Amino acid sequence: MPELELTSYELLFRFVVGFTAAALIGLEREKYRVNKGKDNRKAWISAPGVRSFGLIGLMGTFTTIIPLMMNYEYLCIPLSIIFMVISVIIIGSYTLYRFVVLKESGITTSIALGIAYATGIMSGAGFLLEAVAIAVLTTLVLAVKVYIEKILRGVTYKELISALEIGVLAFLIGPFVPRGYDPLFHIINLRMLYLFLVIILTISYISYMLLKAVGPNFIEYVAVLGGLVHSEATTVTIVNLYNKKCIGGTTALRALIAIISAMIFRNMILVLALISSIVRGRIDFDVYWKVSFKFIVKSF
């Protein structure tokens, strides 16, 4: 097996990323361990944290680095297998300890340890950005558990069915919506109308669930994001929430101002991008205005 040409700094950087990415996952588990230790000190002492996750990630990095750095095939493969077996034994032993000794259910921490080991392998193989991205995503999924549980406690079957109906409308019915305009007046773009309705339903449902879970504090954030994506659909959603008395007049006014501000910001960015393209000669100015004029006339 040919030796991989890596400088000492590149090699050290891979080890650092392998440890740090896994330790990031352990940071959330450390916080979970501290909170859990208030009720069960034995579980708090035995639960893995930042150091354990970081070292597991480091073992994953060793698993990949050793075959890449050594010329002796009769040594590198067995050493990699040894690191892999040790990691599996550690994760398996911790899982059995939870089930047998602590009498606790759940395998979230064990799965997180496995992912930490995998990020270490990716770091050792040179996929540094991917390893960090997976670590961040895993940490985010673990961290939002409390909020997800809070939302799910208040979700009724009717609300769950409503979400499934939106999913069916978006992913199952959407592909069958014809392209082009209506066959009678040739005015309404059927695909755009369908997309508009789906966006309204989605934003309405998300806004309703956020209102139910955390109150009206997040409406402005929803309004800003909706204004960047589809300002008209977001405006309709806010008006509907106000008519149903889900939000007050002041909150609705702030949300509408946020929508307008986001829309203006989005349009300014688009105009600047268009001007830049025209100046650089990437878009013919006369052709652009002829196409835009025909599109506006056809829309009305």
Element-level helix/strand string: HHHHHHHHHHHH
Tally of separate helices: 12
Integer tally of domains:
2
Q: What value does the average pLDDT take?
A: 76
Q: Give me the Rg, rounded.
A: 27 Å
What is the β-strand count?
0
Structural class determined from secondary elements: mainly alpha
Principal-axis shape:
extended
Q: How far apart are the termini? A: 68 Å
Query: Biggest sheet, open or closed, and with what strands and sense?
Result: none
Helix content: over 70%
Low-confidence stretches: 293-300
* Proportion of residues in extended strands: under 5%
Descriptive report:
- The chain contains twelve helices and no strands.
- It folds into two domains: 8-143, no CATH class; 150-299, no CATH class.
- With 300 residues, the protein is mostly helical.
- The radius of gyration is 27 Å and the shape is extended.
- Helix content is 80%, strand content 0%.
